[in-house]
Design brief:
Length: about 130
């Protein structure tokens, strides 16, 4: 019986050995799967953050171009406004001179003076002498 006991004991030890081996294989398999999942998760997270940063960079670049474009257009409009203001001042000055001329032309003494000076017009009995300057 002792022999039987040893055989049973050996069988139990062998079974335990196989169970331990199976558990070790299962653990190694689980551990390997876990490591692969963690590595896959790291890669996914890395890609997520890289794509997020790339998208954010593109948004920033796009907004920067819009701001630069807006500032350039604003500068152009300001330049056009300055030119228009200069032209307006020039035209207002012209208009003031023309209004002054209109009021002067309504005065008969002024009109007579212009006609005499510009066209050498004389009244009856007057003599016109042209002298060199």
């Amino acid at each position: 019986m002792k022999n039987m006991g040893n055989k049973a004991q050996i069988k139990v030890i062998e079974n335990q050995h196989y169970i331990d081996k199976a558990n070790k294989r299962n653990f190694e398999k689980y551990h390997l799967q876990r490591q692969m999942k963690l590595e896959r998760d790291r890669i996914v997270h890395r890609w997520f953050w890289m794509l997020s940063l790339a998208f954010l960079g593109l948004v920033i670049i796009f907004c920067s171009f819009q701001v630069v474009n807006y500032k350039h257009r604003l500068y152009q409009v300001q330049q056009q406004e300055a030119v228009a203001r200069k032209e307006l001042a020039k035209e207002e000055s012209k208009q003031a001179k023309l209004k002054q001329q209109v009021t002067q032309l309504k005065d008969m003494n002024y009109v007579e003076k212009i006609i005499r000076d510009k066209y050498n017009y004389t009244k009856k009995g007057e003599t016109n002498y042209n002298l060199p300057n």
